[in-house]
Design goal:
Rossmann fold, 5 strands, globular
Length: 172
């Protein structure tokens, strides 16, 4: 099996919650790229978007993706737009198993507030558009697609089963 577990998916799909649970269960460090961005800049993500725009944010995100990818044995939870730059995904895939957490926007809207997410900002239609625009990229970069139709425990258990399968295949 590859050394890192990399979680990708739309904002609000459950990556951060799942990342914490997986890291705790697998006794691996958690690297949240959004938290890395905020720590690196001393600013919130909405602040970075306001001051530098999306392009400036993506540049910082790429630097953090490279830092995270260089680590070993970590659970890496990425921002929803990480897949927008091919170089990010190539770096993360070099040393990681990429898991796409696929949660439909209608389910996200039932369980998540969008106000603190700069690209959506309470615009429900925008969330659906982002999903439509990005779904092919998520699928392209994923080693495994994991549907998120239930709660965090169900999702975590589903991924643990997938990891057992990958370990068996790697050791065969």
């Amino acid at each position: 099996m590859k050394k890192n577990l990399v979680l990708i998916g739309l904002s609000g799909c459950g990556k951060s919650t799942l990342g914490k649970r997986l890291a705790r269960r697998l006794r691996m460090p958690l690297l949240d790229t959004d938290a890395m961005i905020e720590a690196r800049t001393g600013r919130s993500i909405p602040q970075i978007f306001a001051e530098e725009g999306e392009s400036g944010f993506r540049d910082i995100e790429t630097a953090c993706a490279k830092d995270a990818a260089a680590r070993e044995g970590s659970v890496i939870s990425t921002g929803g737009g990480m897949i927008l730059r091919k170089e990010n995904m190539e770096e993360l895939a070099r040393n990681g198993l990429i898991l796409f957490i696929d949660r439909h926007p209608s389910r996200i809207l039932r369980s998540t507030t969008l106000g603190d997410r700069p690209l959506v900002q309470n615009d429900k239609d925008k969330l659906f558009r982002l999903y439509a625009d990005r779904i092919s990229l998520y699928r392209r970069y994923a080693d495994v697609t994991v549907p998120n139709h239930g709660g965090p425990r169900t999702l975590k258990n589903r991924i643990l089963l997938i990891l057992r399968h990958y370990r068996r295949v790697a050791n065969a």
